[in-house]
Each structure stands twice: as C-alpha cells, then as structure tokens.
Amino acid sequence: MHGEIMNRQTILFCMIIGSLVIGLFCAGCTEQTVTENQSSGPQQPSKGAISFVATPYGTELSSGNVMLLMLEKAGYTVDMKVADVGLSWQAVGDGNVDFFIGAWLPTCHGQYLDKFEDDLDFVRKSLIGTRCGLVVPSYVEIDSISDLNTNKEKFNSKIIGIEPGAGIMVGTEDAIDAYNLDFELQAGSEIGMLAALKDAIANNKWIVITGWSPHWMFMGWDLKYLDDPKNIYGGEEYIATFTKKGLKEENPEIYGILERFSWEPSDMESIMYDVQNGMTDKDAAQKWIDAHPEKIQEWLGTP
Q1: Distance of alpha carbon 117 from the chain centroid
Q2: Residue 32 to residues 1, 163, 275, 289: CA-CA distances in angstroms?
Q3: Is the predicted pLDDT of residue 4 greater than 90, yes or no?
Q4: Which CATH architecture has domain 131-225?
C-alpha cells in the first residue's frame, strides 16, 4: 500500500506541474489537469510520433504504460499524456491526441460518450468484465445501497469518493438522488480514498467508497459491492478504445495495433498489484510485457 500511495503522490505532483503548461495541450481547459510521460530510454530510429491519453488511475496507468512500452518497441516515438476523464475524452475528440484506451462504458463514462461520440472513431472493446459501484468491506453487515440510510451513523453519513468529474462520481451523485440517500459524497483522490479504506479496515470500522474493478484493492482486502436494485451503476461493463477521426487512414499500422489490443481483468490487476507492492508503473508494465511475449507479438502483428 505504501508503494501505491507514494507512486500516486508522484503522479499527482506531476499533474499539478502539468497544469501550468496546459495551454500546450488543450487551450481553454485551465481547470483540468494534464501531465506528459515521454520515454527517456534508448530508441531505434522512429517510425513517427504517436500521442495518447490515460486517466490518472491504476487501471489506466497500467494499460497506458504497457501501450507506451509496446509502441516504443515497435519503433515509435510515444507521448503518453495523463489527464482527468473529461479532458481525456475532449483531447481525442478535438484531435489533440491520437487515441484513448481507457473508456469505461456504457455507464461509467456514458455522459462523455454522449458528448463526444460524433468526434471520435470507436475501435473495439479491449477489456470485458469491468464494474463500478459502491463498495464496503465484507464485514459490513449490509448488502444493498437501499440499506445505507438506516445505517448512516455507522458510515458518518459519508461516501468516500475520488476526483470530482470522474464518471463514478457523477454516477454516485445520481445514486444519492435515486435512493434518496442522506449522505455526503466526499470528493478527493484515489490515494485519499484508499488511505481511508485502509484505516477503516485496520480499525474494523464501517466505510463505503466509490469502487471499480479491475483494481488491486480487491486482491489486497476482502471487499464487496453493494447491490444496486435501481441499476444506477449498470451491470458488467467494458473498457473500449477510441481514436481521433481519421487515424485509421492516417496511420493504419497504429490502428491495426489498437484493433488487436485486448486483454483480461487479471492482466491489469497483476500490474496494479505489483505497483501497490512498490514497483513503478513502468517497471510493473515491463514485467508484464516480459512475461507475455506472445501477447505483445499478437498485438504488434509480428510473427
């Protein structure tokens, strides 16, 4: 956990610095947060420059760094930008980056798809089996969102959330209205949410958080989703890849790689778990790549 927190603190520091130069990425979006992650390692002669965007969460930093290292292996100069959810969708829609591999659909990012769908090209579903919702430790003696109000004192009438504007935060505001919950949604960060969860579990206290899977926290702790009878968060979901308009014609090789890019929740969780245990995002991604050479060859379309 300590390694995860330190890594995420580093990311957040970089995001703050990135906001000072945001005009280089998306003019007029000064309330959003952006960083860039460019490789400094040795590279072969470049096939050209490629840019993409990832959100600042363990799921997308795992897939993002795998994509970054794989495309460098293929001979590209790669610029991975890190931005919050809304700006990520906008960046691809505006054509400021080439692609985005972190679209959680149909529910979690549904409002962003509605806004930008006409400005994007859908490539494929890259991971099936995601889920969003309200999560509690398994020792908490309720099983449904409908039971929250009758136990609000045990939760201090708070749902511990993450960054404002994240899809799951928008969904949780909807859930508060739909279930008439007498709860405050406490915005913060993934780091802060995980720290609060760790402290509550250590002291056997009741806590409810905005959760999603794949995520290493389900490997580290015994957790459960609260049932959602009103289906506010949707059922089993997926992660999809989108490109800017025209990338297929502009760069068919990159588009082909994105068409082949698909993996399992367990792949993503294994990278996040290594990060949680002290590895850097990039080192954990490289460990996974080294252990799956046949998958990398499949994605790159090489024999």
Answers
A1: 19
A2: 27, 11, 26, 32
A3: no
A4: 3-Layer(aba) Sandwich (3.40)
Which of 24-33, 95-104, 268-277, 289-298 has the weakest average pLDDT? Answer: 24-33
Q: What is the pLDDT of residues 114-142, one digit of tens each?
A: 999 999 999 999 999 999 999 999 999 99
Tell me the two tokens of residue 141: 């003696």
Secondary structure class of 293 (helix, strand, coil): helix
220: left (phi over 0), alpha (psi -120 to 50) or beta: alpha
Q: Which residues are paired to 132 by β-bridges?
A: 212
Q: Over pLDDT 70: what percentage of the chain?
A: 85
Alpha helices in the chain (DSSP H): 2-19, 58-73, 85-93, 110-116, 167-178, 190-202, 217-220, 247-250, 252-260, 265-276, 281-291, 293-300
Tell me yes or no: is domain 2-130+236-300 CATH 3.40.50.2300.
no
